């Protein structure tokens, strides 16, 4: 009998995982530069948290959650997204903001699997809480843009919209409802199934887009303070030199967004998987999960798709391959010394022939080779065309600046 990973899940190993590591390392760097410390929340939470936080009529909640009853009879769900858990953790901590948190980890949704759409997938994201001003929105959008640019997403677009708030959105939704009612005959089945519960979501449907070209736009219905917030966000992004395009149809799949909504799109990828991430402002979320009012803004980025889209060459993983003419015991001791000097070292623990060891060094892409001689004290260090004999203790210093 042999087992395969469950449908829609993957084993990710080298060499593919090398790019994953680079991308996740780059993520930590940018989250740090923008001042977002790590917040690690549980991978499963009370089911009700997601029903309330994500929205009980959203597709994620109605069709995609991995929900189970534990031995104590509680209903738990593997997190389908990160925001609800992070906002819960923030409220639970009793912290007073402005408060920042970043996360990185697997999420779970029972979706129909295809390239870039998995049942277990990895998201990185940030949440910025107890903040209302448009500068907060712009900072968050900028962070995602800088990170995605650093990991070389070709054809990256930031798509921006404002969804209004509790003051102006209900009126718009009514107008939209009237418009969509008259269009029922031309809507696809998916849109028909949500048009009554959540008409906004119909705007997101790619199939229906051509017949809804003249739909009323939220932009024309924003109240004064939402319109002002939106124009400040745009002004800030221009000043930060973060290019964006506006799209009045961008509504996002989750229910909690207010005002700013945005998506990062890798336009060079196929439409089905080109959304590498998105986010927005969610001023009502904290209250909808039973907390005090805490306006906030954040985003989530899909690492599986970022890795698919990235044109970055993974960085080499080995600085030195230690070729030993005297056997694995000596190699082990020497490798340990070089590693403690900060070099990434691979060696042959199996006592294979010297030729085989050289071949392994080149197969693994080692930057330098250090040959440990059968006799004598000095090692022979080779990098490119350069060769030099020296004591083992001098290797790290000599390689500094050459690697
Ligand atoms: P969402 O939480 O739905 O706003 O998704 C944010 C980002 O996570 C998307 O833009 C995708 O890059 C990624 N994502 C969402 N669902 C999946 C999935 N099933 N498989 C892979 N990536 C996903």
Task: Describe the overall structure.
This protein has 403 residues and is α+β, with helices and mostly antiparallel strands. The protein has 2 domains: 16-168 and 222-309, Bira Bifunctional Protein, Domain 2 (BirA Bifunctional Protein, domain 2), CATH 3.30.930; 320-399, Anticodon-binding domain (Rossmann fold, 3-Layer(aba) Sandwich), CATH 3.40.50.800. 34% of the residues lie in helices and 21% in strands. The site of adenosine monophosphate (AMP) has 17 residues, from strand 5, strand 9, strand 10 and helix 11. Adenosine monophosphate is lined by residues 81, 109, 111, 116-118, 121, 123, 253, 275-278, 300, 302, 304-305.
Topology:
Elements: H1 16-33, E1 44-46, H2 47-54, H3 59-63, E2 66-69, E3 75-78, H4 83-93, E4 99-108, E5 120-129, H5 134-150, E6 156-162, H6 169-181, H7 189-194, H8 199-202, H9 224-239, E7 245-246, E8 258-266, E9 275-281, H10 285-288, E10 296-302, H11 303-309, E11 320-324, H12 328-340, E12 345-347, H13 354-363, E13 368-372, E14 379-383, E15 386-390, H14 395-399
Parallel strand pairs: 6-7, 11-12, 11-13
Antiparallel strand pairs: 1-3, 2-3, 4-5, 5-10, 6-8, 8-9, 9-10, 13-14, 14-15
Helix pairs in contact: 1-5, 1-11, 2-4, 5-9
The protein binds adenosine monophosphate.
